[in-house]
Design brief:
This protein is mostly beta strands and 99 residues long. Helix content is 0%, strand content 62%. The mean pLDDT is 86.
């Protein structure tokens, strides 16, 4: 199992669908926006040929009061995979994705 937490200002481009890194402040200057991201990932090998993987991730940003109220502020996705290795260096599988 893997877990990750990331927080910072101006780092949204490092997230999948993180939104904008910068927004204008009240004086028209660029302001780096804060964002928090959480990831939980589980990988289970049933045997040498079958694997199940699942993940969930959330992103949340604090929108300053002087920004648009409908600005992108949060996102979430979940995924589940069933993977099969029928021969060396060959991988086939399917994925369900909610995001």
């Amino acid at each position: 199992m893997l877990m990750q937490v990331a927080y910072g200002h101006g780092i949204a481009n490092y997230f999948n669908d993180g939104g904008n890194d910068l927004a204008p402040d009240g004086n028209g200057n660029a302001e780096a926006l804060p964002i928090l991201g959480l990831l939980l990932y589980y990988d289970h090998y049933w045997d040498a040929k079958w694997t199940v993987r699942s993940a969930t991730a959330k992103r949340r940003r604090t929108i300053p009061a002087d920004k648009l109220a409908n600005a992108y502020s949060k996102g979430q996705y979940m995924s589940a995979n069933l993977l099969h290795y029928p021969a060396k260096n060959i991988l086939v599988g399917g994925e369900l994705l909610l995001g």
